[in-house]
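User: Just a sanity check before I run the rest of the batch. Below are the structure tokens for the first item. I only need the designed sequence back.
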């Protein structure tokens, strides 16, 4: 005897669209922001936002992490998204790419210590996930491998809040990548010279 039709949240599509718009991202760039660039195409994002399809649980988790909210808020039709999402500072800030590049930016070097463990203790799975993380998320920060578990990354930022946001966004992307491959991680981020930790 079957369960019948699976019930679906009625407001999920509008909430996913609202999150993307609050982050100031296009349908293409939200895929990269969530860490799913190798698994999802733009047309699926469009289908999710129209309510034609539903994202899988890991993608819902990635949306929630990107917005700084609980997955409960996405799934429960009785809960509204906060008026101002914790991470809703527009990534593009309404400026053209050229204006953003010309804006005065500071740079800093951060040390990222990342230990990835597969649930079945498979070193080949751990290496594969690490390579994915390096290729998809760390290379854009001029990644320099210091040891098997440690990297130096260069961040450009406007102020401490901007740096915090970038670091937490990167950590969310890494966590999503690791979760997708049934692994766990331990991570530490430290700013060289100041000892500041995230």
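Assistant: Here's the designed sequence for the first item:
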């Amino acid at each position: 005897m079957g369960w019948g039709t699976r019930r679906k949240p009625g407001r999920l599509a509008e909430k996913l669209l609202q999150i993307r718009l609050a982050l100031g991202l296009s349908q293409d760039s939200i895929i990269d922001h969530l860490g799913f660039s190798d698994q999802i195409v733009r047309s699926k994002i469009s289908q999710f936002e129209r309510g034609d399809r539903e994202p899988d649980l890991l993608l819902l988790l990635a949306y929630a992490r990107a917005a700084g909210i609980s997955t409960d808020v996405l799934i429960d039709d009785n809960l509204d998204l906060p008026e101002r999402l914790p991470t809703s500072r527009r990534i593009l800030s309404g400026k053209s790419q050229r204006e953003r590049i010309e804006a005065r930016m500071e740079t800093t070097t951060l040390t990222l210590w990342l230990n990835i463990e597969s649930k079945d203790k498979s070193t080949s799975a751990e290496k594969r996930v690490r390579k994915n993380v390096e290729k998809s998320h760390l290379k854009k920060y001029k990644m320099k491998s210091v040891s098997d578990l440690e990297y130096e990354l260069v961040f450009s930022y406007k102020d401490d809040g901007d740096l915090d946001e970038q670091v937490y966004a990167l950590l969310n992307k890494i966590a999503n990548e690791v979760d997708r491959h049934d692994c766990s991680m331990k991570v530490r981020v430290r700013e060289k010279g100041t000892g500041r930790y995230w």
